[in-house]
C-alpha cells in the first residue's frame, strides 16, 4: 500500500467512460474526494478517442488513455484485434498504476475500467465499482468477484454481485443541476420561453436521437401554434439544421429547438414533463429533481440495460415508458395525454422523487474511505 499515506493526501485512480453517463458520475466522485480531502491526488484512466479524454481535463483533472474497445458479438473474427489491444492495455495500465501508486482504484463502467481494475486487483490494491444501471454489465460482474466494495443505484443487485459488499447509494448527478439560486421566472426569461405555457423538455442525449426527433417532429406539427404548450427540444448537432428548417416551415413558434442545451439546470427548472432516453444518469437526475417523464430506452446499448432501467421505474409507477419503435406512432399522443393531465404529472413527479438517492457522491466517497 501507499507508504506516503500519512504524510500527504491519498491517491486515487478513477477509470471508465465512453459516454456522459459514465463520465458525469466519475467527475462527481472526484469532486467529492477533493471536497473531503483537498490534498488528495486523482488520476483518471480513460479510453483514447472517447469523450472523457476531453471532458476530464476540461474539469481540471489529469487523464491517461488506453487503447481499448468492446467485444464484437456479431463478428467473432474481429475480436482478435480486440484481444491484442486488451493485452497492450493491461501492460500500460500496470505501468500507470505502478508509477502513480494509488490507495484505491474506482471503476465507473465502460470497457476501459476492465483492464485498470483487473491490474489493481492483481496488485492487491483496493478496488471499488460504481454500477449505474439496474442490470450489471459483463465487465463489472467479472470484476466484482475481487472488488472490495460495489456501489449500486438500484434494488435487487445481489442477482449480480456478492450481497455483503453491495451498498445502495444511488448515482452521483451533476452538481450544477441542484443550484437553487435561479428562480423559475429567470429560467423562462433566459431560455426565451412563455411562463404561462406547460413546458415539454426533450433530451435525446448529447448527440441527439433520431427516433425521438422523428416522434417530436410529429408532435410539433400537431401542436404548432398551440398557446397552452411549448417544447424545449435538444436535437443534437447532427439533426439541428434539418429540424430547424422544418419548424420554420410549419411556423411553429411554440417549438424552441437547440442543438445542445448548456443550461440544463434552467431547462429542468421549467419542465413540466421530460422526454428522455433511459440512461442511468438521466434517470437519477429526473429522480432527484422530481420530474415527470416519458422514457424511451435506446435500443443500441449493451444488454439492453436502458429498457431494464426504465422498467425499474415503470414497475414503481414512477415513469411512463415507450419503446424506441413506438416513437413515431405513440409519442405525440402520449405526450399530449400526460402533459394535459395535472394529476398524472403530480403523481409521476412525487413517485420518482420518493425513489431518489441524494448526496450520492459524498456517500460513495465515505464508503471508499472506510474501505482504505
3D architecture notes:
By secondary structure, the chain is an alpha/beta fold. It contains 14 helices and 13 strands. It has helices spanning about 20-35, 50-60, 80-100, 115-120, 140-145, 185-190, 210-225, 235-250, 265-270, 280-290, 305-315, 325-340, 340-355, 360-370; strands at about 10-15, 40-45, 60-65, 105, 125-130, 150, 165-170, 200-205, 230-235, 255-260, 275, 295, 320. The strands form two sheets. A seven-stranded parallel beta sheet has the order 3-2-1-4-5-6-7, with helices on both faces. The protein has a six-stranded parallel beta sheet with strand order 10-9-8-11-12-13, with helices on both faces.
- From N to C, what is the helix and strand string? EHEHEHEHEHEEHEHEHEHEHEHEHHH
Mean pLDDT: 91
Largest sheet: 7 strands, parallel
Secondary structure category:
alpha/beta
Number of spatially distinct domains: 2
Total number of β-strand segments?
13
Low-confidence segments: none
Adjacency order of strands in the biggest sheet: 3-2-1-4-5-6-7
Strand content: 15-25%
CATH architecture of the largest domain: 3-Layer(aba) Sandwich
Shape: globular
> Roughly how much helix do the residues carry, as a percent range?
40-55%
Annotated CATH topology of the largest domain: Rossmann fold
Separation, N- and C-terminal Cα atoms: 10 Å
